Input
Amino acid sequence: MSNGVTEIPAADATRALSHFAAAFEFETDCWDTHQALASGNPGFVLLDVRGPALFERGHIPGAINLPHGKIIGSKMAQWPADTLFVTYCAGPHCNGAARGALRLARLDRPVKIMAGGITGWLDEGFPLETELPEA
Output
């Protein structure tokens, strides 16, 4: 019996491996981001690409607020060219992380999106910070 799941056969293992491995080149998740930040040496800069008011209401500890519309070459020059950036926004209903990632990619910067954003972070039970980082 055919249904919405079985109507189209699954990809063969080689194509599935290629597809799923490639996805991790573009995104990470909240759990892995949390673990990396907890290590003290995450290997990336976490960018909260929402506006300052939302950032002040609550953000991921260690994140830097840089709204996606303000990601420009002169602001990114403070980091080495090979710095990996991870962007996040409000959550699955928001495309700010993708907009930020696109701007970074246009600047030839390595970038991934943190899938789930703030919504995913909270769903995992991780806390938000309301104190602003020192300038």
